[in-house]
Amino acid sequence: MPLLPSDDFLVSLRLAPFYIALFLIIGFQLPFWPVWLSYKGLTAEEIGIVLSAPVWSKILFTPIIASLSDHLGRRRAPLVIMSLICFALFQLYFLVDGFMQIFCVALSIGIFISSFTALGDNLVLTLGLTRNIDYPRIRLWGSISFIVGSFFGGQLLAGLSPDYIPAMLSAAYLLLFLCCLLLPEIEVTRGDKSKKGLRRLLKCPPFLVFLLAAGLIQGSHSVLYAAGTLHWQTQGISDATIGFLWAEGVIVEIILFACARYLFKSFSPIHLIILGGTSGMIRWAVMGFAPDIPVLILIQMLHGVTFVATHLGAMRYIMEELPLEVSARAQGLYSAISLGLIMGGGLFFSGYLYEGFAGHAYFFMAGSCAAALLISLYLQRRPEPLQL
Known about the structure:
Layout: H1 7-39, H2 44-72, H3 76-90, H4 99-113, H5 116-128, H6 135-157, H7 164-182, H8 197-202, H9 205-219, H10 222-234, H11 239-263, H12 269-287, H13 293-300, H14 302-321, H15 327-357, H16 361-380
Helix pairs in contact: 1-5, 1-6, 1-7, 2-4, 2-15, 3-4, 3-5, 3-7, 5-15, 6-11, 9-14, 9-15, 9-16, 10-15, 11-14, 12-14, 12-16, 14-15
């Protein structure tokens, strides 16, 4: 008699496409969207402003949207509505012209798209409390999709006009809407701690310290993101090798997500954040000495540890330390402050750091991770449970 797939496996099959579609958009947008913006006549400064719009939207609107999701006690419904709004707003790119119109559309879409990761992660993690669902193994499909989008997007666009770039992204936004329809819905009961949950979280010192620690580690990637390729080019490294170095980090990320259940089984959330900070401190300290290619290949493998360990530690901290009825708001604040405000600030200052210190700017990133380690040790030594 054939074995039927379990309900948990079937639910997982409904979750993975969400990450595939979401990171396909990112995989298309990061390498190719600036090309279209330049084709539309925007200057380098204007392109930077347009690309930063979702980051600043995340800081303000993600906590608001997450609070609404907690208030409703639902996750799927807001994602479906927002994905449809994003797809509709994206069609305006086929009509607009000039910097101001393009910026307004980018800002409008950023209000909604910036909240997808927070609500999607919270949906999967909440389901994981009652089902045998492995969040890292579902999340890894996002990393795979990013690589596929970056590589095959280039193959698809080879020899074509930049006018095809928004068409490709429009199709990806439509796919995101369809994948959101596949998501299972959850209902989170509103309790007393749900009232004024955002305010309670912002008045909780240990939670704010956690946001700072995670943000300092994730924000330490800013010099690499802003100037990593440029610095490697000044070292005389070929474009093909630079592409390999970027891909290597994401491949290690995928492997660690796939094996996280076994590798990090004995780690507490804070231990994971400490592991991420330690690997980041080592990685950036070595990068500051402009190592040769063999050392770069080895040190880039730490990207998986720096990002994955910190991210999984943050996700588990939110789900294990906080009441479920405020978890979406906590997820929203993590996205807004750690990945928005701190990362956005890091990206802003990284250009000045690289201009003033060149490759030695990585030493500042090592210092950021060292500060995060000291903060994490404070959290680890707290004997009392977190109270809202």
